[in-house]
Amino acid sequence: MPVALQLVDIWKSFDGALALAGASFESRAGEVHALLGENGAGKSSLMNVAAGLYAPDGGAIVINGVTTALKGPADARLHGIGMVHQHFKLVRPFTVAENILLANRRPHFSSGMKAIRAAIRKQADELKFDMDPDRRVSTLTVAEQQQVEIVKVLVGGVDILILDEPTAVLTDAESESLLKIVQRLAQSGTAVVLVTHKLQDVKRFADAVTIMRGGKTVATLDPREATAEQLTELTVGQTIALPTRTELPNGPSRLNVGALTYARGDGRIMLNNASFHVRSGEIYGVAGVSGNGQAELAEALIGATEPTSGEIWLDEIGDISHASASVRRDAAIAAIPADRYAYALAGSLSIADNFAVAHIRSGRYGGVAMIKRREMRKDAMAAIKDYDVQGARSVSQKASLLSGGNAQKLVIAREFSRNPGVVVAHSPSRGLDARACAAVHERLIAARERGAAIVLISEDLDEILSLSDRIGVMTRGSIVAEFERPADRQAIGRAMVDHA
Amino acid sequence: MHDLSKQMTRSSTPSAAATSHRFGRITLDVRQSLPPWKQAVFVGGSLLLGLAISVWILALAGISPPQLASELAGVVSADSLRGVLVQAAPLILVGLGASLAFRIGFWNLGIEGQMIFGGIFAAAISIYEIGPPSTRLLLMGIAAATGGALWVLLVAFLKIRFRVNEIIATLLLNYVAMYFLFHLLYGIWQDAKTAFPQSTPFRPFERLGDIGYGLNAGLLVAIGSVLLAGWLIHLSRVGFYARFISANPRMAKIVSVPVQAVTLGLIAASGACAGLAGFINIASQEGRLTQSFSNGYVFSGVLIAFLSRNDPIVIAVVGFLIAVLFITGQTLQVFYQIPFTMVQMIEAIIVMTVASSEFLVRHRVRWIR
């Protein structure tokens, strides 16, 4: 098969930080080529260069054998390169057809709409998408929005399709069907680039894989011939040891959640008499299909929402279900929310401020009258070193400039710096690469060994199974079954589905 | 991400790019960062542009630039500088008032109403002769701050309890305060001697006088408030909390920032500053409660806070400059029969030009031929 896209020795830096250091890549028509790497390895940057979004500082872009200087994304589209971004670029109040028309202009609106509608129908039929051109984007699920993004790119006609982390936001079943469609697209002659950090997707669906590390492409190989260990070693640079856990004797019960109920503003019951207890020195995993009340449980535990009824009984403190956040802080509850930027960090403020804010009430950083900035910076500096937060050139830098994994490490550094008695972690490794994920898990296990009671709420069953001492399955706002370690994966899966 | 979305918009207009090549084409990029000195150049440049437009309009109104220059020189000369400093005090205080509320995202447009209630509370102390003469002035100041704070806390309560929009509520309560003031001045507080709608004059010990070097005591109150606000925002724990409340209130609550207390405290401080501004106007300039001592200050307060980026120390400087503009405006009004609304128009022009410099700070505009 001919080489459709060739990136040769691409260099790119942002504000002096090197993002790409001589990366090279080749994609052939008719194959799915995976681009594998950790967070921040430069995958998205490299593909943004290919899509004309970033102008490279050095290197060449060769499209169908012709060296081309892309003047912008529109120019890239003219050359047949289309990209579906990780964060969708859709106008939410517009309909599907309007969004697609916006990206594929026609000279006249009404006749253009007609043409676009026909094109959508044809494209959706080919891909077997069930797509209504007149639905508003804001009413679509995440998976449906992604389909719109894909159709939007294909309607314009592409030879080279780049998908940036397409499965990050999808459920397993949705990912599977999407990747099958992607495979079919490749078989019809399109060159598909699949940016991902999921090994399984690469092994099952890619024809070739290029691995990136630290802004460089380190290897290109056939994923069917490489073992998972080899791929991991190439992405990470070294193999990561699985967390070792020591067996601890059963501790005393620390946290008792009793008949916790929460009805949303629209009357929908999200938590329905959820009850469980967590011992000290124990990780209690809450498993379940996403949307069964896990988010609400986490919010009630960390104090983001007040439950309608029921209690959260903390040993030696009492019921904290309506207590303020400061009471929870004083009771040494650490909160690791799923949405870091919404609940755990103020992106526009500095890393030092974000680190210090949770301790300022203790008087560690000065009294009410005078805050001690130097102390804050010193502690934050020590913490980012200790917790291996990378990408921070200084602690005065804005927290929003950290990548997802490093932002999460910063949150954990702050929450664990007081030796927590209770940890509430909701999807703590979502969006993190293998190394960051392992670091987070190690911290949770260390807290367990220090005697903390840990509630681990996660939709990732592997994470739950590898870490938890006991597992509760959450369905429709209740804990419907509990399993002791070692738990039977199949039985948990059945419990998740049976009660739904 | 922001960057991408902007460029995506550009990408989706290939036809426009293709057809307009005859005139070249303008492209927009979002800047990642801009060094502070360049930001200063943009802001300073647009300030100059605003002033140039103002000079031009004044020339159309019959004041030639040389005449304007000599008037300006007169204003900043030693004699009139006194007047400028007297005028600067309330302006600095309303600027502080606006900025303290803006810092936690509370759009206080009720500064005039809070000034009026500050004035009414202070005048009440004088009219009902509360406290001994030696502490009367201090008591009037405290009453004014309390009056301003209470008037804005009413809206804070409505916002927290019933989610009433504070922009509309504070703005419209200005009229309620104004008519209540009229009610007093045409009624029980009317000066019996003159029968004018104003209170009886304050006694000498109820007035803010000179403190030497031609400085008015009102300026001292303003500078003291600037230092206090500077400490509160930059050094104290409250300022630290306030940054989190405006950056991410949901997160602030979870990491145990006392969101409600800090919010209410700063809103109250905002009203208190406005109340003090009202007190200074009646106790130093007018010497009695009048109908119009708060006119136009809400706009100036917002302007000063905006130009100073809510920084208390910068507010002192900008407040002084706006005072120069006010006094110049008054002179022009007397000698050239220019309406005083011209001053407000110049203020508006400067706001617009400086606000548009923000666009250049955030974006890079290129014209490709």
Primary descriptors:
heterodimer; A: 500 residues; alpha/beta; Rossmann fold; six-stranded mixed beta sheet; 17 helices; 20 strands; B: 369 residues; mainly alpha; ABC transporter involved in vitamin B12 uptake, BtuC; two-stranded antiparallel ribbon; disordered N terminus
Give me a quick take on this structure.
Chain A is of the alpha/beta class and 500 residues long.
Chain-wise SSE layout:
The complex is a heterodimer of chains A (500) and B (369).
Chain A: E1 3-14, E2 17-28, E3 32-37, H1 43-50, E4 58-63, E5 66-68, H2 73-78, E6 81-84, H3 96-103, H4 109-127, H5 142-155, E7 160-164, H6 172-187, E8 191-196, H7 199-205, E9 208-213, E10 216-221, H8 228-236, E11 253-263, E12 269-279, E13 282-287, H9 294-302, E14 309-314, E15 318-319, H10 325-330, E16 333-336, H11 340-343, H12 351-356, H13 373-386, H14 404-416, E17 422-426, H15 434-449, E18 453-457, H16 461-467, E19 470-475, E20 478-484, H17 489-498
Parallel strand pairs in A: 3-8, 3-9, 6-7, 7-8, 13-18, 13-19, 16-17, 17-18
Antiparallel strand pairs in A: 1-2, 1-4, 4-5, 9-10, 11-12, 11-14, 14-15, 19-20
Chain B: H1 2-11, H2 14-19, E1 25-30, H3 36-60, H4 65-75, H5 78-103, H6 111-127, H7 133-162, H8 166-185, H9 217-235, H10 237-247, H11 249-254, H12 259-286, H13 297-307, H14 312-336, H15 341-362, E2 363-368
Could you walk me through the main structural features you see in this protein, from its secondary elements to its overall organization?
- The complex is a heterodimer of chains A (500) and B (369).
- By secondary structure, chain A is an alpha/beta fold.
- Chain A folds into 3 domains: 3-236, Rossmann fold; 240-332 and 420-500, Rossmann fold (3-Layer(aba) Sandwich); 344-418, no CATH class.
- Helix content of chain A is 34%, strand content 26%.
- Chain A has 17 helices and 20 strands.
- Chain A has a 6-stranded mixed β-sheet, with helices on both faces. Chain A has a 6-stranded mixed β-sheet with strand order 16-17-18-13-19-20, with helices on both faces. Chain A has a 4-stranded antiparallel β-sheet with strand order 2-1-4-5, covered by helices on one side.
- In chain A, β7 (160-164), α6 and β8 (191-196) form a beta-alpha-beta unit.
- Chain B is mainly α.
- Chain B has a domain at 81-337: ABC transporter involved in vitamin B12 uptake, BtuC, CATH 1.10.3470.10.
- Chain B is built from 15 helices and 2 strands.
- Chain B has helices spanning 2-11, 14-19, 36-60, 65-75, 78-103, 111-127, 133-162, 166-185, 217-235, 237-247, 249-254, 259-286, 297-307, 312-336, 341-362; strands at residues 25-30, 363-368.
- Chain B has a two-stranded antiparallel sheet.
- In chain B, α5 runs parallel beside α9, α5 (78-103) crosses α14 (312-336) and α6 (111-127) runs antiparallel to α7.
- Chain B starts with a helix and ends with a strand.
- The interface between A and B is large, with 47 and 33 residues.
